[in-house]
Amino acid sequence: MVHNTKFHYAWIILALSFVALLSAQGVRLSFGAFMEPWEGEFSASRGTISLVAFISYIVFGVSQPFIGRLIDRFGVRVIFSTSVLIIGLSTIATFFVTSPWQLMLIYGVIGSIGFGGASNVAGSVAITNWFVEKKGFAIGLMTAGSAGGQLLLVPLSLLLITQFGWKSTVLVLGAFLTFVVFPLLYIFLRTHPSEKNLTPLGESVEGEQASKEQKQKKVQGISIFTLLRQKNFLFLLFPFFVCGVTTSGMIDTHLIPFAQYCGITPGVAGAAVSLLAGFNIFGTIFSGYLSDRYNCKNMLAFLYGSRALTIVILLFIIHNPAAFGFFLNESYLLLLFGISFGIVDFATVAPTVKLATEYFKQMSVGVILGWLYLSHQIGSALGAYLPGLLFDLTGGYSSSFIYAIILLVAASCFSFMLPSTVHHVRPVQHSAT
After folding, report:
1. With contact defined as beta carbons under 8 Å apart, do 288 and 138 qualify?
2. CA-CA distance, 244 to 222, in Å (whole number)?
3. What three-state secondary structure class fits 131?
4. Do the Cβ atoms of 116 and 59 come closer than 8 Å?
5. Distance between CA atoms of 244 and 380, rounded to whole angstroms?
6. In sequence order, what DSSP letters do the residues of 354-369 get, joined into one string?
7. 201 has which bridge partners?
8. Pick from 271, 399, 273, 403: which is nearest to 341 by CA?
9. Which residues lie closer than 8 Å to 1 by C-beta, 6 or more apart?
């Protein structure tokens, strides 16, 4: 194993990817904080504002396979930085919105093209290019960037909206992305170690040459219909779809409106979101660490099953917790939910990406991850829209939480039935055989 420098530039790439995801996805995950102000501003129903999120997730999702191909063609640096610039400018542009249809166009379409480019697909390709050693841990850290955005930008958005209004808030967020994050990425980000005359972290020069030869042999044209006939792809795809339904879609979009519906104070709701995001960071990093050492398919089965149990807490909040023998009131249960859900929120990403890179070594990582994230974002779109629609129809969230639990149990079963990888990584033990 050869390390070209004492401090490898791969860690700079990881830090830049972390900051980019924190900023870009933090803005996207702040959507729930804007729902109530936008309902009042545009005299719109929750279903209408949820439709904005639905469109956003659809555009985000459909862009993912194309983003994978664009990264293969233009590199991570160009796609990542340009996407952040698009998000920044479109966020500033929402200041001038006067009706829901304009919001759907600027945020739902234009901004979401940027969200699609500044996503885990670009980050995962960057990490895959720069890391051989500690890849799962690096993916976990990178993914924690989105959780970091949730921890910092969602409460910050709530605070700024309360103090200065939603219009000033979008100006602050947009300016940060445009004038701080975009220049950092454009100046310092690099797609391949060869651009810095380096090899990936943990790979020898000989290994780098073999890797280049393998990349030249990769399948370029990958039909989704061909992939869907493969059990390992299908059984990764469906759980990741459910992941989108229950995280970015349902909980990240509707947790704050749900807390408001239950009469829980904004301070407690903000604390719950902060706890969720904080424990999300811990869960995501720890999951990445474990994915380098243990069976990723079993990890996914456990994570989806655990997530189903956490959503049961929300049903307790709705249906009088005292009736179930709980001595905690709704506010404390919401905080408990934030902690427990946070641990298993983005924790599914690292083992999913790790399995994908092991199952499909002969194919383009960007394209494979693009299709997986398409399913995730379609799930996110449905998870954001359906609870708003069902809320308008039923006056509550119970039915949404029940179907989420059923989907998560199914996702757990699908994950458990995934084939084990041949080159499964366990704690290294050096011994002669």
Report:
1. yes
2. 23
3. strand
4. yes
5. 4
6. HHHHHHTTTB-HHHHH
7. 131
8. 273
9. 133, 202, 203, 204
Cα 231 to chain centroid distance, Å, stands at: 24
Closest CA relative to residue 16, chosen from 91, 71, 80: 80
Give the span between the Cα atoms of 364 and 128, in whole angstroms.
11
- Give the start-end residues of each E strand in 197-356: none
Answer yes or no: pTM beyond 0.85.
no
Residue 294: burial class (beta carbons within 10 Å; 0-12, 13-18, 19+): middle
* Strand ranges, E, within 145-259: none
Torsion of CA 141, 15, 241, 280, to 10 degrees: 50
For residues 27 and 18, what is the distance between their CA atoms, to the nearest angstrom? Answer: 14
| Full DSSP string of 376-402 | HHHHHHHHHHHHHHHHHHHSSSHHHHH
User: Using an 8 Å Cβ cutoff, are 157 and 169 in contact?
Assistant: yes
Q: Would you write out the chain's pLDDT as a tens digit for each of its 433 residues?
A: 444 447 889 999 999 999 999 999 899 888 888 988 999 899 888 788 888 888 887 888 788 888 888 988 899 999 999 999 999 999 999 999 989 999 999 999 999 999 989 988 899 889 988 988 888 889 889 988 887 887 788 889 988 999 999 999 999 999 999 999 999 999 999 999 999 889 998 876 555 554 554 554 454 556 777 787 788 899 999 999 999 999 988 998 889 889 988 888 888 888 898 899 889 889 999 999 998 888 999 999 999 999 999 999 999 888 876 655 666 778 889 999 999 999 999 899 989 988 988 888 777 777 888 889 889 878 988 898 899 889 989 988 999 999 999 999 999 999 999 987 654 444 444 444 3
Nearest to 226 by CA among 362, 334, 332, 381: 362
- CB atoms under 10 Å from CB of 419, counted, come to 12
Token digits of residue 241: 């779809």
Are residues 334 and 274 in contact, defined by beta-carbon separation less than 8 angstroms? no
Residues pairing with 359 in the sheet: none
Q: Residue 38 CB: number of other CB atoms within 10 A?
A: 20
CA 308, chain centre distance (Å): 18
Amino acid at the residue 263: G
Residue identified by tokens 């803005």 is 27
The whole-angstrom separation of Cα 430 and Cα 370 is 37
Instruction: Name residues whose C-beta falls within 8 Å of residue 33's C-beta, 6 or more positions apart in sequence.
Output: 154, 157, 158, 161, 256
Angle between helices 120-130 and 10-29 (to 10 degrees): 170
Token couple for 362: 């002969």
**Does residue 273 contact residue 33 with C-beta atoms inside 8 Å?**
no
